[in-house]
Amino acid sequence: VTMTLIQGVMNTFVVFLSRVIGYAVDSFLRRGDSENSGPGIGYMVTTIVMDIILGFLAAIIVAWFSRQREFRADAGAAQLMGRKQPMI
Questions:
Q1: Prediction pTM value
Q2: pLDDT tens figures, 38-77
Q3: 75-88: per-residue pLDDT in tens?
Q4: b/e map of 41-64 (b: 16 or more CB within 10 Å)?
């Protein structure tokens, strides 16, 4: 459950930040263009690229958290066993 929640929160940040960055890039590229009101190609391309980059970074963070949980579980099991030999 913890890993699912962390992955969900990270994905929410990825989607939100990629859209904000895409909007900022599109606004910068289309400054002075008052004819079109919708998002342009800058928004779409930037959003896709940022989804990939931020998704990769989020996966690294989730993997780090997963490894930390595993290390804590191993340390707790070793402490319960009292010595390292049964763990090996």
A1: 0.74
A2: 787 888 999 999 999 999 999 999 999 999 998 888 888 8
A3: 888 888 876 676 66
A4: ebbeebbeebbeebeeebeeebee
**Residue type present at position 58:** A
C-alpha–C-alpha distance, residues 86 and 88, integer Å: 5
Q: Tell me how far apart the alpha carbons of residues 45 and 12 are, in angstroms, rounded to a whole number.
A: 19
Q: 9, 25, 14, 8: which is closest to 56 by C-alpha?
A: 14
- Cα distances from 25 to residues 20, 58, 85, in angstroms, run 9, 22, 57
- Other beta carbons within 10 Å of 29: 14
Q: How many other CB atoms sit within 10 Å of the CB of residue 40? A: 16
Q: 42: closest CA among 30, 55, 54?
A: 30
Alpha helices in 1-88, H assignment, sequence order: 2-29, 41-81
